[in-house]
Amino acid sequence: MLTVAWPLALILLPLPFIFWRRQTVQAEGGRLQLPGISQTGKANITSHSRQSRKRYWLMWSLLVLAITRPQWLGDPIELPSQGRDLMLAVDLSGSMQIEDMVINGKVVDRFTLIQHVVSEFIERRKGDRIGLILFADHAYLQAPLTQDRRSVAQFLKEAQIGLVGKQTAIGESIALAVKRFDKMDESNRVLILLTDGSNNAGNIDPEQAAQIAANRKVTIYTVGVGADVMERRTLFGRERVNPSMDLDENQLKHIADVTHGRYFRARNSQELEQIYQEIDKLEPVSRDQLSYRPQAELFYWPLALALLTSIWIALGQLALFSRTKNPVPSATPRGDVR
User: Fold this and answer.
1) CA atoms within 13 A on the CB side of 309
2) Which among 144, 160, 39 has a CA at the least distance from the CA of 87?
3) Residue 253: CB partners within 8 Å, gap ≥ 6?
């Protein structure tokens, strides 16, 4: 269905007529007869003026139409009436750039693996509301709970390691998620916390935040990211090291246990994907039936036509100026030569 967002803008349509009317009245009140201009010349000027006004009127009408924001509304689409409310808290600390993970045979850093796997997880959450928290030195809400999965996935894709600091504020991320869930009446209240370290920043203790989450009936699934073994080159050859020494698994297990959640160890993409099946077991919550109508903006069509009309007017004025500056000489009859 075709509609306009701002129909009141149509009151601007008569403005050119008001301007031209006042201009005509003033011209007639103080009309001067200029020497050297024939009746034919005045008729040509008047004819050109009328044509110009029609073109100006067309351009103005198209501009006003563009201002009204014409839109095409599609048929109503009903949103799922059942789903889960999931908040994702993703660690952006400096250690997330350690390259100890593998995707399709290629070695990548930890955050790249999270982006790859969690983006697929978000895509599968049809009917669920997804939110995104990014944390390092402090926790920040990147996306509130929404059914717009594409936007949440895009926010995660655009995130950068070190964007909000280098350390790890686990307690703050939990507290921020609990605060957001407090605004939801009927909700599963599930937080998925992905980190590769231990709490070393922020003003809130993780155990204290987990207890508050348990009291508010928020279930936390913690995910410890990082490989157990990684080879690196040294002056004495290759050596095997544990790149996940800073990961506090006991703390993450405690947070999950207190909130009746579960701890996952993600040494690779397959282990990280295990959370899919666990979340699918959650009973979805019934919500009010909502619907939306997709809309497409059409204002650029009249705007483009107005631009073309302005070019048409400019060419007409240029042609008139050229004829005025270089008039075609009139033919004079020759007398008889005797």
Assistant:
1) 19
2) 144
3) 222, 263
- Written as six digits, the tokens of 201 are 């920043």
108-119 per-position pLDDT tens digit? 999 999 998 889
State the pTM of this model. 0.63
Interatomic CA distance for residues 283 and 17, integer angstroms = 65
Q: How far apart are CA 149 and CA 33, in angstroms?
A: 73
For residue 203, the 8-state DSSP code is S
DSSP 8-state code for residue 136: S
> What per-residue string of b and e applies to 34-50 under the rule 16 or more CB within 10 Å gives b?
eeeeeeeeeeeeeeeee
- What pLDDT, on the 0 to 100 scale, is given for residue 296? 85
CB neighbourhood size of 123 (10 A): 11
Q: Which two tokens stand for residue 265?
A: 């160890």
For 322-335, the pLDDT digits (tens) are 766 665 555 555 55
